[in-house]
Design brief:
This protein starts with 6 loop residues before the first strand and ends in a 16-residue tail after the last strand. The protein has 2 domains: 51 residues; 63 residues, no CATH class. The chain is elongated. By secondary structure, the protein is of the alpha+beta class. The chain is built from 4 helices and 8 strands, in the order βααβαβββββαβ. The strands form 3 sheets. A 4-stranded mixed sheet has the order 7-6-5-8, with helices on one face. Strands 1-2 form a two-stranded antiparallel sheet. The chain has a two-stranded antiparallel ribbon with strand order 3-4. Bound molecules: zinc ion. The site of zinc ion has 8 residues, from loops.
Length: 145
């Protein structure tokens, strides 16, 4: 693990993070990671590295449009069979419910009304009104090849 009180060369940083040296250099170049100024070869402060690692470890877990975050898998997953149910809320937007393609667990995610048409092009979406218990497939997938 990264020790915050020491400095790391590119080589050591790569090993500590389990990435290629080229990756560290790229991060340094792009400013994602900063080295101690004026030193050649580059030395990275341990706490800089630890902070970077921390940020990377907690990504926003943003899912692709057709994915939901599966609490069982603890990862964004595609929906089983490309199917999803969306319950529309009266105030716009909705709640998408689908089965995880990997573990078949139920996944939920909030969707905005703006993304629903896009979802319909990639998923077989069944739209339900929040008020009615019986959903009907109001919008069949338009791209039915
Ligand atoms: Zn899952």
């Amino acid at each position: 693990m990264v020790k915050t009180h020491r400095s790391y060369t590119v080589d050591e940083a790569a090993r500590a993070l389990g990435v290629a040296k080229g990756t560290i250099r790229r991060w340094l170049k792009s400013g994602k990671l900063s080295a101690i100024e004026g030193l050649r070869p580059a030395l990275i402060l341990g706490r800089e590295l630890a902070g970077f690692l921390d940020k990377r470890r907690k990504p926003k877990q943003s899912c692709a449009l057709q994915e939901c975050y599966c609490l069982t898998c603890r990862a964004p997953r595609e929906t089983a069979g490309g199917m999803a149910d969306i319950t529309l809320h009266a105030n716009g937007g909705g709640n998408l419910r689908a089965l995880c393609a990997v573990c078949s667990g139920i996944m939920h995610k909030r969707v905005s009304s703006a993304t629903i048409p896009a979802l319909q092009t990639i998923l077989d979406v069944a739209i339900q009104q929040a008020s009615s218990r019986i959903g009907k497939r109001a919008f069949p997938c338009p791209n039915d090849h």
